[in-house]
Amino acid sequence: MLESNQSTAGGFKLFRKCQNIMKSYRKELWFNTKHRREFINITPQVEECLAESGVKEGLLLCNAMHITASIFINDDEPGLHQDFETLLEKLAPEKPYSQYHHNGFEDNADAHLKRTIMGREVVVAITNGKLDFGPWEQIFYGEFDGKRKKRVLVKIIGE
Ligand code: ZN
Description:
The protein has helices at residues 8-21, 43-53, 78-91, 109-118; strands spanning 23-31, 38-41, 58-64, 69-74, 121-127, 130-131, 138-143, 150-158. By secondary structure, the protein is an alpha+beta fold. It has a single domain (23-158), classed as YjbQ-like (Jelly Rolls). The protein has a five-stranded antiparallel sheet. The chain has a three-stranded antiparallel sheet with strand order 2-7-4. The longest helix is centred in the N-terminal third of the chain and has 14 residues, at 8-21. Zinc ion (ZN) binds at residues 102, 106, 108, 112.
């Protein structure tokens, strides 16, 4: 249907044609955790976004919009989540607050570091209208400085 050997003008037309068929979707998910640190499986909400978008083939980006929270993919297994908590507390313990240069007016240096370790975002392929996961893969919101309203962005592009 689309030819690669078109002229510059034709190339522009081809781009416009792509714009007509490409869908784009954006949504913010809000979280307000009870505890300072929590892991929440947000796969069902992300799958709802995908269904709403109508995209069958494409890419889904999901990222925390705050620098003290993460989005990551792993197993939904409570023992593993406890292991993450233990690892993160070893690498960047919350207390004493005074051990961090960042903690002048704030007390969340550990949360910034934990966020960087666990990552900002995930990208998942969309195939046949489904998230194209490997075995046991689930999407998690990792909160490291909670008890306040925070956002996650879901962006989907495709057709
Ligand atoms: Zn801070």
